[in-house]
Fold:
Amino acid sequence: QVCAQLCRRPCYCPWVPPRCPRGSPLVLDGCGCCKICARRLGEPCDFLHVCDQSQGLVCDYSSASAGTGGTCNFEDDEEGCEVNGRVYRDGEVFQPSCKIQCRCLDGGFNCIPLCQEDVRLPTPDCPYPRRVEIPGKCCPEWICEAQDQHLLPDARAAPGAVSPLLRYPCQEWGTEWSACSATCGLGFATRVSNQNRYCRLETQRRLCMVSPCPALPAAFPA
Structure:
C-alpha cells in the first residue's frame, strides 16, 4: 500500500544524477526508480530516501513519532563512528589527515599524532630555531633563522645581563637543576632557562659534586 502511494509508474528521473557529498554513494531510491544520494549516519530517512546499506545503516523509526521519517542508524545497534561523512567499523584504523591516525572504538575514536612534537633548543650552530610548514610536506620542520639584526653581541656586557636592545620585558623562566651526572667527584647539572642577555631558552650547565670519590686501594707490592 505504501509503495502504491509513493511510487509512480512509469518513473521519471532527471537526466543528470545528483552530486553526492563525500562518503555518500549513489543508490536507487525506495521505489527502485531513480538514483539518489544514500543517507548517512544520523541523517533523516524514509521509504524513498534510503540509508547507506554498504555501511550497515538502516532507517530507524524507534524514536520517531507516528507519520514521520526515521533516522539512519546501525542495524542491531552495531557500534561505529562517523568522521568527515564516512562511517568506520568498530576497530577500523583510518587517517582523517596525514598528521593523525585514528581507531574507531565503541562508537568513538582515539587518535595519535604522526608528526613529531619535539622541541629544539638553541645551539651554537642554530641559535634561533623555528618550526615552519614546508610546501609539499605534511609535518612541519625546524629551520634555523638568521640572527636578529636588532640584537647585537656585546662582549663587554656582564654575564647574565639582559641586553638593553630588547624591546619587551623579559619574564624569567627556567627549570630546576637536574641531578648531578656523577655520583662522586666532579659532574654536570643542567637546566633549561631564558636567564641570559637575549631572553632566549637555552640549555645551561654548571659543575657539581655530590661527594668526593673514595681513594683507590694501594697497589700490592710485586
The chain has one helix and 14 strands. The radius of gyration is 34 Å.
